[in-house]
Records
---
Amino acid sequence: MPSEKHFRTLFGPIRSRRLGLSLGVDLVPEKTCCYDCHFCQIQVRSTLTCERRDYVPVADVMSELEGWLAAGGKADAITLSGSGEPTLHAKFGDVLAGIRERTPIRRVLLSNGALFGQADVRTAALQADVVKVTLSAWDQNSWESVHRPHPNLRFREVLDGFHAFRAEFQGELWVEVFLVAGFNDTEASVRRIADLAAGLKPQRIQLSTATRPPVDRQVVAVDHAVLRQLAGLFLPVADTLGGAAPVSADEVHAVGTSDDDLVAMLVRHAAPLEHVAAWLKAPADQAAARLDKLEKSGRVKRLTHDGETYFTGGKS
Ligand code: SF4
């Protein structure tokens, strides 16, 4: 039974090909990030910052989580992710620890890793069961071109931070490599990234490209057949799962189904109609009518990408 309460930080759950059913926890305001990637899929203006703050009280996040669990919420993972960089929340480690106190569901941190040069960020990240960091470049220039990072950041410090974290972390370290045609997709570029990634001895490497609509409409996804070939350059061999995972209404206990919940969800995760229908537990025509209304009021946009129609929240 979905709640009518509007959840500020929880969203989903979303079915992820890698995590299963994943309840999202968004700890920062929309698109607050230390990168401004060309390929970003969050369709709102960026706030580029390295300042770590208590953007939302940890007690509020715990209260939302308790409400969702008490209402029968189930997921395979609780994932710090969303519309910006979760490590920018000064107490994200306390959030991970608080989740562990309340549920055995595995805790996942999806981070760009830009702040892993800071010891306190690495210490907080140790509270997760799975940590995913991003490595899509091989030196300062390539990193600046792909991610457009905050000017205070340095690629070498980020990479050194990944090594320091690997040495301490007992959980699963995943490395995501995001490839964009014309930026970092030549075999020579990918070999350099693969060498760096291998040095981190990750349990999993994910090779991704722009499967959902990017803000920069000039960004071109790498062909999936090419991705599969490049995957063999990595150790372990990278997985190339892409696209939206199938979802069914029976398995989703959405954190909320109000218009605010739906828009907040679509800001963080652009989705096709059938996913929206599953979240709403509604037939596709009813979900389409809701989306039409929100589109007319300017709160939702329709984007076509790779022949598929996605709905996304927010005005660019
Ligand atoms: S893709 Fe991720 S890391 Fe890059 S700007 Fe968007 S939210 Fe930040």
---
Amino acid sequence: MRSGFVTLVGRPNAGKSTLLNCLVGAKISIASAKPQTTRLRVAGVRHRPDAQIVFVDTPGIAKPVTSLGKQLNETALAALASLEPLDVICMVIDATAPLGRGDRTIWQSLPTGARAVVAVTKCDRASRAQVLAQLGTAAAFDADAYFPVSGVTGEGTDALLEHLFAGLVEGPAYFPAETITDQPEAWRIAETVREQLLARLSDELPYSIAVRVTEWTPDRIRCDIAVERPSQKGIVIGRGGRLLRAAGTAARRELGLEGVYLELRVRVEPDWQRTPDAVARMLAPQAPSAPRR
Ligand SMILES: Nc1nc2c(ncn2[C@@H]2O[C@H](COP(=O)(O)OP(=O)(O)OP(=O)(O)O)[C@@H](O)[C@H]2O)c(=O)[nH]1
Ligand SMILES: [Mg+2]
């Protein structure tokens, strides 16, 4: 058996989670057009009969403004700090955004001597010239290898995957063959609800939303949706409850929970993303199987 860890890092919104899902071949980590979507270190596992790669998704690294931002940075940096010598770092760069100081700062914060590859992603949306220019600029990073990819169409990801599998060393199966993530089912439910809300909301609101499963019985799941101000509550619920209902229906469908009553309750947790205690509560691990009555 050969195995290893590959940690994806990069700026917020670079396309890390979309790429992780593509590399694993299953939806593990939610994605959205708004930055700071990923809030925890999330593992997604790609299995082969004689090999296994544990991909690790991390929050985007950026200058923090709030306690939430600070926590996300710390989570990503802690993932880097805990790397073992043979682990691989996959630095994810957005082909459609100029490569800037943010990317350089991240590259410089990688542990010295680490094995690192660069994935320039969103190539389906960039021109050839843009992709080449981005690869050219990123060449200064002196990574082990460079891959133009798309997490949406999958182009280039086979080459990346083969490179990563080829670099594995002898090691244990970290996860059993049927396990593709380290996150509990309750987390997946809460995240799917949050993703459906993010897809329907604009502006600053996405940062203010946190979702947790608070009750789970065979025929009923309740999710608490925290917002920061009373005015946001109305926006999330939508006129006549329309937005919340649409998000709930879509989440239930994606989760295959038709027939289960998914209760979405919106409540105000004033300024939670600026309050360290509240941030810790919102990001705390969800119980493996959610609490029962
Ligand atoms: N066209 C295209 N869009 C992409 C690709 N990868 C990601 N996106 C889009 O870019 C946005 C951000 O993607 P995410 O995967 O959430 O990015 P992230 O780096 O995980 O973001 P954070 O978790 O916020 O740090 C979403 O709207 C994705 O649909 C890609 O390869 N092609
Ligand atoms: Mg993400």
